[in-house]
Design a protein that fits this description.
Elements lengths: L1 H23 L3 H8 L1 E6 L2 E2 L3 E4 L4 E3 L1 H13 L2 E6 L5 H6 L5 E2 L7 H4 L3 E2 L4 E3 L1 E6 L9 H4 L5 E4 L4 H9 L4 E4 L6 H6 L5 E5 H10 L4 E3 L9 E3 L2 E2 L3 H17 L1 H10 L1
Parallel strand pairs: 1-5, 1-6, 10-11
Antiparallel strand pairs: 2-3, 3-4, 6-15, 7-15, 8-14, 9-12, 9-13
Main location: other
Family: Belongs to the bacterial solute-binding protein 3 family.
Protein name: Amino acid ABC transporter
Amino acid sequence: MLVRILSALAVVLLANFSAHAQQAAPSRLDEIIKRGTLRVGMTGDYMPFTFLDKTTQQFRGFDVDMAEALGKALGVKVEFVPTAWPNLMKDFEADQFDIAMGGVSVTLDRQKKGFFSTPIMREGKTPIARCADVGKYQTLADIDKKGTRVIVNPGGTNERFARANIKDAEINVFPDNTVIFDEIAKGHADLMMTDASETRYQQKQHSGVLCAVHPDKPFDFSEKAYWLQRDMALKAFVDQWLHISMEDGSYRKIYAAWFD
């Protein structure tokens, strides 16, 4: 009986000690507020979400404005940390930033390494091609034929989707995502499969030349969200901030400035 009592007491003491240790350890949210800076990882090559002006070294885009709004809600400054799609996972794991923003898609591989916020957008992969060729690329079977030139940016979900679905068509990896759509316009590639939001944006930027192919009915399902270092307090704050932003119209105002 005495052994049972002592064992039970030990369990209670250990649980109390663990709970106290967890309470005592500062959260990532606490660290950000104490530091006075939110470090935001961005690729800077994915309009309308994020673009880095190489001349001024200034970021602009939808998620740039959202990051500034998040920083204001936290009461801290925002520090943008340049990264690239092939290096995003490595930089995240190396704790180069607190949060990744800039059109980041939710994936299970990324979920293994951190938390995702409440999704901010629902979409999927769909083609963009020269307007005269839209009818030729309605399905994956239409696209995956010898002689078709599919262009992709390296290291992200676009390349992953293309390699998973294209076996006979030619896949060309183009390193500069900021001018990749010009390659289609010039006739150096036939199409690109990317997020529906990007095809709509690039259609506007190349009016009458490039056209989004059924962006309302993409080939797959995906969501965009903000990728957070694994901290429940930070995730709870970001989710609540997003909820308020979507309800009070501030999210819609920023969205309209870049997408409407």
